[in-house]
Amino acid sequence: MVPALVLGAATMLAACGTNDPTTPGAYGEDPGFVTGSPVVFEEGKYPLGEYVDWDDTLRIRADVVGVDGDDSGAWLTLDVRAENTGSRARVLPELELSCDGQESGFGAPVEGEAPRPSRVPADGSVEYQERLSMLGGGARGDSIPKCTGEVTIDLTEQGERSSSTMQAWTVPDDLVDELNERRPTPESGGQQEISPGVLVDVSVASVGGDGRQTWLSVMVNFDSDSGKELPLPPPTLHCAESDDAGQALRDGLTIGGSGGMQVELLMPPGAGGEPLTSCSAPAYVEIGPGRWKLSDDELDYLNEELAREPGRPYNWVATDDSFSSGYQVVVVPDATAAEALEALGPNRRKVSPERFWAIRVAEHDGGVVLFTWGLVDEDKIVALSRLSGLAASYGNTVNGDDHVLVARDGKVVRSFDPFLGQDYVKSKHLPEEKGLDLENDTEPASWTLLERLTKVHITRDWLMDEDHPAYLVK
């Protein structure tokens, strides 16, 4: 809790007056309270639970008895005992958490326990509990860096830290791992510093799959002041159900300057090695020391998509924002592009495929496919159906309207909103609609319906090929 951290800071004694530890009154104490004989350090690192000789009269033992955390941070709880064999009271050295030689945590009282004593009585001892919290602003949603490298609990003089005069206990790897796991995790979309001068934020984009593998696509935005390309630590996906992480589909990712990239993260493996089919909290994306928690809404979305089999046909139209609204596709089997252009009428001219109302016309898989970010009029689809006896179309609008239209031999036989199940032209359900979740999985199911009707299979890469000719049609 933040108040506990503030209280912990308040317990530190600032150095004042003379700093000679042999001088009465050092650190503002009464003349009868001295720090003892000159400190002669024999620098070293010791196992937790062993006594460390601070000097010739004072020795200290520390051991970790718990690892915990909350929204404010993560911490180690220590049992500490200090023994003084001298004839004068002694100032109690401070404990600090050090990650890879850098000061990374500070002491605070343990809730419900007596406060940390400031001194050790002459020819006596003290025992107390202390909490070493990792530096960072978890209560504000800021990142708390991962503790890496050699992790130690250091004994230091009050108010000062000198690595050349330091005694320390080494923290075992399993406790370090647990400490890092206890770090509060900002939700996705928050910027974190993963290395000096490199800021990154992560947000969930979509769920995808190819029938063999399933992945979560995330948008990684970055801002670096290094002026050169830097390797990006491998992003990973973590779910509560697995001790292992889901890896990125691509490796060797680099960042430089300001920009962004989409990264596909495979679902973590389960106990049997197969990819997870659900993901529970805590779930997060990790890049180096940065960690971004999936929100409840993002987890709900991920699990809904996992339940729908992300590798199902035409999943890409549901996960690619380009197809979120405002386009139309028409498929005519057993026809050529020349025949389709003739059916569209003479009032047409070739234009860039990027023009909003441009209709791309290209032969594919034994038929012809028309695609536009605008609209193909119903009478044009009816005319196309006269070429081989069938034309099938799906489109949606920026207003959220969906429309499937099927024409045979110049007559509309099915025209309905697949999401609402509402007929635009009264008609019977087609046999090819059976088993399709048109209400809850509208776009992939509608594209699948077109394929069932026409036997023409369309991939995103082929559809978005810029070499397809495009026309404005009046």
Provide a concise account of the structure shown.
By secondary structure, the protein is mainly β. 15% of the residues lie in helices and 37% in strands.
What can you see in these coordinates?
This protein has 474 residues and is mainly β. It folds into three domains: 2-181, Immunoglobulin-like (Sandwich), CATH 2.60.40; 191-311, Immunoglobulin-like; 319-473, no CATH class. It has helices at 2-10, 173-181, 296-307, 316-319, 337-344, 378-388, 442-454, 460-463, and strands at 44-47, 51-53, 58-70, 73-84, 90-91, 94-99, 102-109, 119-120, 124-134, 151-156, 167-170, 191-195, 198-209, 214-224, 230-231, 236-238, 246-247, 254-255, 258-266, 284-287, 290-293, 327-333, 348-351, 359-364, 367-372, 391-396, 402-408, 411-417, 422-425, 470-473. The strands form six sheets. Strands 1-11-10-6-7-9-4-3-2 form a nine-stranded mixed beta sheet. Helix 5 (337-344) packs across helix 6 (378-388). It is elongated and about 110 Å long. The N and C termini lie far apart (68 Å).
Task: State the main characteristics.
single chain, 474 residues, mainly beta, Immunoglobulin-like, nine-stranded mixed β-sheet, nine-stranded antiparallel β-sheet, 8 helices, elongated, disordered N terminus
**CATH class assignment of the largest domain:** Mainly Beta
Q: Which stretches are poorly predicted, pLDDT < 50 over at least 5 residues?
A: 1-42, 137-142, 159-165
Mind summarizing the main beta sheet?
A: 9 strands, mixed
User: Separation of termini?
Assistant: 68 Å
User: What is the helix tally?
Assistant: 8
CATH topology of the largest domain: Immunoglobulin-like
Q: Strand content of the residues, in percent?
A: 35-45%
Choose one word for the global shape.
Answer: elongated
> Mind telling me the C-alpha Rg?
33 Å
> Which structural category fits the helices and strands?
mainly beta
For the record, the count of structural domains works out to 3
Helix content: 10-25%
CATH architecture of the largest domain: Sandwich
Strand order of the largest sheet: 1-11-10-6-7-9-4-3-2
Mean pLDDT over all positions: 83
